[in-house]
UniProtKB/TrEMBL annotation:
Organism the protein comes from: Ephemerocybe angulata
InterPro entries: AlphaKG_dependent_hydroxylases, TauD-like_sf, TauD/TfdA-like
Molecular function GO terms recorded: oxidoreductase activity
Residue span of region Disordered: 1-21
Protein name (database record): TauD/TfdA-like domain-containing protein
Low complexity: compositionally biased ranges: 1-17
Keywords: Oxidoreductase
Residue intervals of the TauD/TfdA-like domain: 101-357
Superkingdom per UniProt: Eukaryota
The organism's taxonomic lineage, starting at the top: Eukaryota, Fungi, Dikarya, Basidiomycota, Agaricomycotina
Length: 405
């Protein structure tokens, strides 16, 4: 299990490295040069015991490996869209809350088996998967917000039936990803997902990250970027295995507004024959209304270099998706990093995504022991009847910053 430390624990007096939420390539290269000058033998440090020299297979890809988006986009046919429409009308007629959505209350007799096969072949099977798939495209403008969320949950139940708790404060199992700076003061915003700023490559909690695009930014930007964490691992194993050792060690991760204030946990795991990286950059740097506390241990210079290496190698090998209104993007969060570009809204079109964290209990990967407790909180902590699906954007409690008053 992850080691939990209390405020009374002995704290190092060393300073937090010069590292921000938004990666700075010049600082990364300078830190790398400085550390290698101080210790030229760093690249000769072997991999952590038992870790593979390289990972092969379909999940270890580079962006240049993909030439046609039909390789990852499944475009719904007219008949399948009609089946979805019949399913949402049937579900509404039952007068049930969205948490009651299941294959029996949202029947997709033809499309359902197709979605299940996509989940297996594109997301879960290390022999065939690329780690992501996009379902295109739901005609969101023809439906109400409730209907759109029902469609989202209805399709998702065939991909990965178990939904994770996103907001312990409300019981929310969905999150609205949109710029809320006009609604909340900046001191209350502790995550870039509630601004129009770019997000560096990172991992979310949980197995499958699903994003449903209700609207794109009228002024452009907001591109969705994906990268194989297995390809990043291979690069580090070849050139800087010492950094994989750093990632396999324990980081002091900020818990933001919770007790205890930080948790010691690794970011890199080798479990059940698979490499899993949980890239939690924000928990190491803080962001805007949730800066990193000075009362918890700082990360080390080596950890700062490793964090930046994850981002800039992901940037090197990433694939940028043509994410469109009505698309649903599913990503295997255990073998992928995701990021987004900065965007510009207009009064007519404001970028708006809806996020669900999912797990397929039948196909999902085994979770490393240090992550088991976190997964229990995500997937087992809330009864089905208490799951909330807010129709409008609200701040997730874990991302709520500190009031300036």
């Amino acid at each position: 299990m992850a080691t939990i430390l209390s405020p009374a624990a002995s704290l190092s007096q060393s300073q937090q490295p010069d590292i921000d939420y938004h990666p700075d390539e010049a600082k990364w290269r300078a830190r790398t040069a400085r550390r290698l000058a101080d210790n030229p033998s760093l690249p000769d440090i072997p991999l952590p015991a038992g870790f593979p020299d390289t990972i092969t297979g379909s999940l270890a890809w580079e962006g240049k490996d993909w030439n046609d988006e039909t390789e990852w986009v499944y475009t719904l046919s007219t008949e399948e869209l009609m089946e979805i429409d019949e399913a949402v009308q049937y579900f509404e007629g039952l007068n049930l809350p969205i948490y009651q959505i299941s294959p029996s209350t949202f029947p997709l007799p033809t499309l359902g088996p197709v979605l299940q096969q996509l989940s297996s072949s594109h997301l879960h099977d290390p022999g065939t998967a690329r780690g992501f798939v996009v379902i295109r495209s739901i005609p969101v403008a023809t439906y109400t917000r409730f209907q759109n969320l029902a469609i989202y949950a209805g399709i998702s139940v065939y991909i990965a039936p178990t939904r994770a708790l996103q907001d312990p404060g409300t019981g929310g199992v969905i999150g609205h990803i949109t710029d809320l700076r006009e609604t909340f003061e900046s001191s209350l915003l502790g995550a870039a997902s509630y601004t129009n700023e770019s997000q560096p490559f990172h991992s979310d909690p949980g197995d499958i990250v699903a994003l449903f695009c209700l609207e794109v930014a009228g002024g452009g930007g907001g591109g969705s970027k994906l990268a194989s964490s297995w390809r990043v691992y291979n690069e580090l194993a070849k050139a800087r295995p010492d950094l994989l050792g750093v990632l396999a060690g324990k980081f002091p991760l900020e818990m933001f507004n919770r007790a205890p204030p930080y948790r010691m946990r690794s970011m890199l795991f080798h479990h059940d024959g698979k490499i899993i990286i949980q890239n939690a950059r924000r928990l190491c740097t803080g962001y805007m209304g949730l800066p990193r506390s000075k009362d918890i241990p700082p990360i080390t210079e080596a950890q700062a270099e490793a964090l930046d290496a994850l981002h800039f190698l992901a940037e090197k090998y990433h694939l940028k998706l043509n994410f469109q209104k009505g698309d649903i993007q599913y990503v295997n969060n255990l073998c992928m990093f995701h990021a987004r570009d900065e965007f510009l809204d207009t009064s007519e079109k404001r970028r708006h995504l809806v996020r669900i964290w999912l797990r397929n209990d039948e196909l999902g990967w085994k979770v490393p022991p240090p992550l088991v407790k976190r997964w229990e909180v995500l997937y087992d902590a809330i009864p089905l009847e208490k799951q909330k699906f807010p129709l409008e954007p609200e701040l997730r409690s874990a991302s709520r910053g500190h009031t300036s008053k």
